[in-house]
Specification:
The structure is a homodimer of 256-residue chains.
Chain A: E1 3-7, H1 16-29, E2 34-38, H2 44-48, H3 60-64, E3 75-76, E4 82-85, H4 91-97, H5 107-112, E5 122-126, H6 133-140, E6 144-149, H7 153-171, E7 178-183, H8 191-204, H9 218-225, H10 229-232, H11 237-255
Parallel strand pairs in A: 1-5, 1-6, 2-4, 2-5, 6-7
Antiparallel strand pairs in A: 3-4
Helix pairs in contact in A: 1-11
The structure holds adenosine-5'-triphosphate (2 copies) and magnesium ion (MG) (2 copies).
One adenosine-5'-triphosphate sits between chains B (12-18, 40, 44, 129, 184-185, 213, 215-217, 219-220, 223, 238) and A (11-13, 129, 150, 152, 154-155).
Chain lengths: 256, 256
């Protein structure tokens, strides 16, 4: 059975794309097959796995606006076992035209039914920093929402804004959606980061992953190289932390 | 004459809100009157100057959706000479309903005409991390666009996406719009940051401010305190850098 994960947060710059890329890289390292879906018009996930958005003929926008089949849009990456549905600037159009259609929030969910349950172990969806129709489509198509957050004030404040969106998705189509919070870009020497981390842990309890991701400048280098950190430099601290996150997740999924 | 500045970038987490707050604080330190406008549904700018978005009765959404007058929405902050048009979660509605109206991109521009030219020296507008109708409204109402960017790969990549939006705004209503790029969260010890900074300088030349903003954890503390860094701890490196940015800007504006 394929398990689908959305990476979303209205707050910008909290490592949504970095988490989608690194987690998929970690699943590949554990010999699990993963399909990445880039739902952000910025197309950073597409770039993070070494593909030029300007060079692709069809993207996720063609899929959502109904003009192409799933199989004609899925691409292989340089990583065995890791495929991608890329994004490009056409997604700006999808952002504008999706909301005017009836039941626009369920378009992706209905499309992903066409994927055979044994094709992939995981589907990982990256979203733009917004709670509009694109992110709602991803949430309705998912088993789990991962909310990356920096241990900083504006990010912690944004966690509260995510809860009403989760309640709405559960009430209108996906009652089984679970969420988990992931602390990212954590600096252990910073007093604010340590305080915020403890406040988030106190507020959300089991809703927070045990694994947290520390600041690691090697992650910046891996995005330049177009490779997940697990394949760019597997021994760095962040590669090992994303590997432990993948194991923590896989363990949770088996438990379900 | 009032000079209007939009702080925008599709890329998330690049210090848009921190720049809007700190720049307005710096203008106040230089005895210039500033009106801040929070156009982001996250309402981080409202929070950054110590106001609880859940506690306000009317926000910028009421202004844009035409139900209230400007004067009934403008609030004073604890900083003399610094006023605010706050945001709250009603802005999610504005994001959805604005684009269906005719000439939706010019609503803010037409509303700001009601502000007397001697009321403020500067208007500073914070935007969500997107290039939709909200950001377009801000761009059409502005003299200048400041694009904060981290010296990192995804941020630098996003700069390219901003240029077509600037061209469109100039072609359809605001030919005099100028833009300037501001490097933020810069870590002088980081090789990637130094390389990226030089690449941005080589690509954009005079389009880049001379002033750049270094990483400074005191900025995180000031957002917790609900004060601009210039009023939270005026002697920190970032307070002095934002002060020099305000002077560089004021000098440019006089030159126009
Ligand atoms: N653990 C980390 N250590 C250091 N840098 C990091 C880490 N995680 C992410 N980054 C860097 O921080 C920046 C923001 O991360 P990223 O772009 O993945 O966030 P995002 O939430 O996807 O942003 P957006 O809201 O624009 O989609 C990137 O330049 C990335 O390389
Ligand atoms: N120079 C700096 N040094 C250290 N931290 C900073 C600096 N500038 C901003 N920050 C912190 O980085 C985070 C991102 O900044 P901010 O929220 O202002 O970005 P933004 O572009 O407004 O994000 P969004 O895209 O969500 O609107 C915040 O937690 C802020 O406190
Ligand atoms: Mg991203
Ligand atoms: Mg902001």
């Amino acid at each position: 059975m394929t398990y689908t994960i959305t990476i979303a947060n209205q707050k910008g710059g909290v490592a949504k794309t970095t988490t989608a890329t690194s987690l998929a890289g970690a699943f590949a390292t554990l010999n699990m097959k993963t399909l990445l879906i880039d739902m952000d018009p910025q197309a950073d996930l597409t770039v993070a796995v070494g593909i030029n958005p300007k060079g692709i003929s069809h993207s996720v926008a063609d899929l959502l606006l109904n003009s192409h089949s799933l199989s004609s849009i899925i691409m292989e990456t340089t990583i065995p076992g890791l495929d991608l549905i890329p994004s490009n600037s056409d997604m700006e159009l999808a952002e504008r035209f999706l909301p005017v259609r009836d039941n626009h929030e369920y378009i992706l969910k209905d499309l992903l039914i066409a994927i055979h349950p044994t094709s992939y172990d995981f589907i990982v969806i990256d979203c733009p920093p917004a709670l509009g129709s694109i992110t709602l489509n991803a949430l309705h198509a998912s088993n789990m929402l991962i909310i990356p957050t920096q241990p900083e004030y504006f990010s912690a404040f944004a966690l509260r804004n995510m809860m009403p969106a989760i309640k709405r998705v559960r009430a209108f189509g996906n009652p089984a959606l679970v969420y988990r919070i992931l602390i990212t870009m954590h600096d252990r020497r910073n007093r604010i980061h340590n305080n915020m981390r403890e406040q988030i842990r106190a507020t959300f309890g089991d809703g927070l992953f045990n694994t947290l991701i520390d600041v690691d400048t090697k992650l910046r280098e891996s995005s330049l190289a177009g490779l997940p950190i697990t394949h760019f430099n597997p021994r760095t601290r962040s590669a090992l932390q994303y590997l432990s996150l993948a194991k923590e997740l896989d363990h949770n999924v088996q438990m379900v």
